[in-house]
Design brief:
2 domains, elongated, alpha+beta, four-stranded antiparallel beta sheet, 6 strands, two-stranded antiparallel ribbon, SH3 type barrels
């Protein structure tokens, strides 16, 4: 019996065939995953040309900067050499200035030496006269001892002056002046010499440690003459027990307890 296929019966077969063909078309020949489509390569010729141009400009700028740096280094070396020359000139001028100053000083020293010698001779004569007057006014063993030392110093000063040593003579005369003043103060003190007082042959200076009273006599019961503040300087003339006989810069005298004065340095 012969079988016939109608068009209606063949539609499922056609659909299946179409599906298979579509699946085959979406795979690679070796059955792998399909590759993405290849995009066209862009044209970078213009960008490359622009980059090369910019590189050329930078190379020119670098060359210019290298030349400028070289010139700067050369100028720096020139300035350093110039500075050395100027430094040497400054030292030369300073040396010439020092020599000129030394010459002026020597010239003035010669002139001053003539004047100073005359002044020193006159001062020595005055000191001898002051020593003679102090010897007539003062009395007591301590005053005589101070005046004797002053006399010896003036003799040494006269000898030193004859040797043209003006500075040494002036120093000896200043020491003699202090001794003469000390002898006079011991002989004419306004508070007077007290019994038991030890008179110092040479008065010396001390500084008031804290504010305190200066009394007429050595003792807490004595009358207060005045007060001195911390930092005031006094000349110590003598001592009685713990009390010091002092004289101020304005020639006032009195007695202070030793605790009110700084220790001798």
């Amino acid at each position: 019996m012969e079988t016939r296929y109608t068009g209606t019966a063949s539609l499922p077969v056609l659909a299946a065939t179409a599906i298979l063909l579509t699946a085959c078309a979406s795979t690679t020949p070796d059955g792998g995953v399909p590759l993405p489509p290849i995009e066209p390569i862009p044209d970078i010729g213009e960008e490359l040309a622009s980059a090369r141009k910019e590189i050329g400009i930078l190379e020119q700028e670098r060359s210019r900067l290298e030349k400028s740096l070289k010139k700067s280094r050369e100028r720096n070396r020139e300035l350093k050499l110039e500075l050395l020359d100027r430094t040497a000139l400054v030292h030369q001028l300073e040396a010439e200035k020092e020599r000129a100053i030394e010459a002026v000083v020597q010239a003035k020293a010669r002139l001053r030496s003539r004047q100073s010698k005359a002044e020193t001779v006159a001062n020595l004569a005055e000191m001898k006269l002051a020593l003679q007057q102090a010897a007539e006014e003062s009395s007591g063993s301590n005053s005589e001892q101070a005046l004797s030392q002053a006399r010896d110093l003036l003799d040494m000063a006269e000898q030193t002056l004859n040797e043209e040593n003006l500075e040494g003579a002036s120093y000896l005369m200043s020491q003699a002046r202090e001794l003469i003043g000390s002898a006079r103060n011991q002989g004419t003190s306004t508070t007077g010499h007290r019994q038991g007082e030890i008179l110092f042959p040479v008065a010396f200076g001390l500084t008031v440690r804290r504010k305190g009273n200066v009394r007429l006599k050595p003792g807490l019961q004595s009358e207060v003459l005045f007060q001195l503040n911390a930092g005031d300087d006094v000349l110590v003339l003598g001592r009685r027990g713990h009390w010091l006989h002092v004289r101020t810069a304005d020639n006032r005298t009195g007695w202070m307890h030793f605790n009110l004065l700084d220790d001798p340095s």
